[in-house]
Amino acid sequence: MNLRPASILALVSTLIALTACSSGGGSGTGGSGSAQSGNVDVGGYELFYQCEGEGNPTVVLDAGLGSAGTADFGDFISELDGVAARVCTYDRAGTGVSDVRPRSAGKLTAALEAEELHSLLVKAGIGPPYVLVPHSYGGLITRVYADKYPDEVAGFVFEDVSTAWEIDLWPKWDPSPWIDGGQKVDIQATEKEVLSAEPLGDRPSVVLSQDTYKGEGIPKWAAPIFAKQQAKLAKLGDDVVYARADGSGHFIHEERPELMVDAIGAVVAAVQSNSQLPDCEEVFTESDVTCLT
Questions:
Q1: What is the pLDDT of residue 286?
Q2: What single-letter DSSP state applies at residue 45?
Q3: Which residues are registered as beta bridge partners of 291?
Q4: C-alpha dihedral over 229, 292, 131, 226, to 10 degrees?
Q5: Contact indicator for 145, 151 with CB cutoff of 8 Å
Q6: How many beta carbons lie within 10 A of that of residue 93, not counting itself?
Q7: What is the tens place of the pLDDT at every residue in 191-222?
Q8: What is the pLDDT of residues 85-98, one digit of tens each?
C-alpha cells in the first residue's frame, strides 16, 4: 500500500519541516557514542542519513512515497534500542533535508533510488549485511535493491509495502501520478523492474500488513485484493512469517510499534544465528496479530 499524491502533500510538508528542525542539516558525523549522521554525495547531489546503535547486521529503514525517513522513523528508531543491531534511515532525494535530484540523474524508477541508497551506504561506510525494512512505496525500492545487490541483503521486514501487482489497480480510483521527492516516478518502468526481480529466497523475512484499510482512500472492494497481494509477497520466500497487525492502519510503526520491534528483532536474531525464523506465534509472543503463515 502507499499514500497517493493527493493524500500526501500536507504530510510531506510536515515531514520536511520536522526533519529540518530535528537534523539541522548537518554534514558530518554528529551526536555521541554510536550515533552517526551526515550528508553523502551520490552523484553530484547529497542525501542525508542517520544511524543509531551498534551491532551487525545493519537495519535500514526506508520510508513511504514522498516521505523523509529521518522524520517518518525519527521516533521509532528509539523503540529499537533493545535490538542488537545498528539502525539507519535516510531521506531520499527531494525529501527532508536531502538535495533535490537533478534531471541529469535520469528517469526516476525504483532502480535509480536503489542505486542511490547503495551509493549512500558505501560512501558512509555502512557495510553489509543489511536487514531492509521498507514501508509502503519503499517496498518497491527494496525488492529492486535486493535484486541488484543480492549478497548485501540478509533479511527483510516488509511494513504494509507496495507491491508491483497493485500498480495497475490504483488508477481505477486515483489516476494521479506517483510523486517522490517532488519528482514523478516512472511507475510503469518500476513495475517491470520489480516484476523481474528475484524472489526473496531463503532470507528470513516478515511480511506485516495492515488490518483496517482506512484513511488512504482505498475503496472497500479493493481492500481484499490488497490483502491477497500481501499474501502473494509472502509466498516469494522460503523463510517467511506473514501476519496482519490487528487494529492497525498503514503506519504500523506508529500505531503498533511493538509489532515492528518484534519483527525486526526476530529477523536480526535469525541473521545473527544463521537460523530460520521461529513460528509466527513465537515472533509475536505478547502482541495481538493474526498469523497467516
A1: 78
A2: S
A3: 243
A4: 20
A5: no
A6: 25
A7: 999 999 999 999 999 999 999 998 778 899 99
A8: 999 999 999 999 99
Who contacts 177 (Cβ-Cβ below 8 Å, separation ≥6)? Answer: 5, 184, 185, 187
Cα 46 to Cα 174: distance, rounded to the nearest angstrom = 32
Amino acid sitting at position 247 = G
In 3D space, the residue among 113, 129, 128, 130 whose CA is nearest the CA of residue 64 turns out to be: 113
Which cell numbers in the block locate residue 2?
A: 502507499
β-pair type (86-90, 46-52):
antiparallel
pTM to 2 decimal places = 0.90
- Contact call for residues 262 and 284 (beta carbons, < 8 A): yes
- pLDDT tens digit string along 229-277? 999 999 999 999 999 999 999 999 999 999 999 999 999 999 999 999 9
Per the DSSP assignment, residues forming a β-bridge with 39 are 48
d(CA 256, CA 18) in angstroms, rounded, equals 22
169, 218 contact by CB (below 8 A): no
Contact 180, 156 (CB under 8 A): no
